[in-house]
Amino acid sequence: MAVTDLIRSLRLEYHDTDEAAPLLADEQLERAVTRALASVNKDLKRSYAVDGDGNVSPALEDDDREVLLLYALVVVCRMIQAKTARNFSFSSGDKKVDKTKQPSYWAELGRGYLTQYQQVVSDRNPEYGIGVPAITPLIYGSDE
Amino acid sequence: MLTEGERGMMVMDSAELIRMSGESAEIRRVTVSGTGGFAGPHASNEESVATVPIEFHQLSPEELKQIGADGICSMLPDTDIKEGDMVIYQDSRYIVTDIKHENCFGAVTHLTVKLEREYNGQS
Questions:
Q1: Could you tell me the residue ranges of all domains in chain B?
Q2: What do you get for the CA distance between the two ends of chain B, in Å?
Q3: CB within 10 Å: which end of chain B, N or C, has fewer?
Q4: Contact: B102, A92; criterion CB under 8 Å
Q5: What is the 8-class DSSP label of residue A131?
Q6: CATH number of B4-24+50-118, picked from 3.40.50.360, 2.40.10.210, 3.40.30.10, 2.40.50.140
Q7: Which residue stretches of chain A have pLDDT < 70?
Q8: What are the C-alpha distances in Å from A61 to residues A53, A65, A67, A68, A119?
Q9: Residue B50 pLDDT > 70
Q10: Res. B63: pLDDT tops 70
């Protein structure tokens, strides 16, 4: 699968389809895909890489593709959070604009995607699937 | 301190608010001819300057009375408009009586234009 196809899917996911004024450039989304590939390789024990023609090889399995997009969305949210971090509010005449809450909204969205990613990965990776054992507190002096 | 990019962002955001109203108005200007002639300069005709995005503020008669205008609107900062121009908005004619360049930290974000209604060609 071509990285450009993954980038197109990513833009659809986070509603960045206005070609005249994209939220992120293709280079940034390529970076997000590359970082997601590294995470998927580590967490699902895969060995995906981008070849010289800009394709992911070996061919991405459908399930792995969805996991990869999920992590790429986490990176995208962090990128837009950084981009909007200097947003400020202003008023001029009768106009008032306040975009100061955008970074926290993107951070919240990113946390949601990360939670989903961790859930999917822990379901699919036997090492992670065990999960964190429940802690049973031992209370000294109790009858049991 | 604001950067040039941030000032530009303020202008773009204000312009977006004006364009979001989805309305436009025609600006017409009286042409002057006869400059240097025996009779001197005189208004000869009226020509259309441009049709531009506009955000017309719906104010109550009391509010308009306080402002001292029949109408008030916002226009983009680079709009070619002068005092004395005519604004045709929703089949009504207005004459421009005042133009205020709204300035925010060194950036002109938009124009606030005061209008006086013209009835049957007379104000």
A1: 4-24+50-118
A2: 45
A3: N
A4: yes
A5: -
A6: 2.40.10.210
A7: 129-137, 142-144
A8: 19, 6, 10, 10, 19
A9: yes
A10: yes
